[in-house]
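Q&A log
Question type: sequence-to-structure
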Amino acid sequence: MSENHRKTAKGACLCGAVAITFLFKNEFFDACHCGMCRRWGGAPLLSVESGGGVTFKGQEFIGTYDSSEWAERGFCKRCGTHLFYHLKGSEHYELPLGLLADTAGLKFRQQIFIDKKPEHYSFANATATMTEAEVFAKYRSK
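Response status: OK
Response body:
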């Protein structure tokens, strides 16, 4: 899937009440090991970053949870599927990899909050990593 940032991605929740369309930002997916992501989904969050153009069909079925001062998490109110992590006041959406109809060609790029990852699992892929402090230092300045 070369030049993903120019391609449109589509996905939907389990029950089909919510459908998402967006533009790929790039051809990568990342993993977040923070405690909140692991608690939210029972495992690390594997996600792709939207390159813009995020649209939702079935908005009346979308619930949100303010997970911090700067971010919210979206879910389907009907089936509970996780739909997005969104930085408030921005176009930045992280969309769970499992929502996507087509993940061919995506490459595992990075793991964040690596210092919060429990010892009971590891990914075999060689990726870049960032600690909690590194993540906050990078994104607080924006």
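Response note: Helices lie at 35-41, 132-140.
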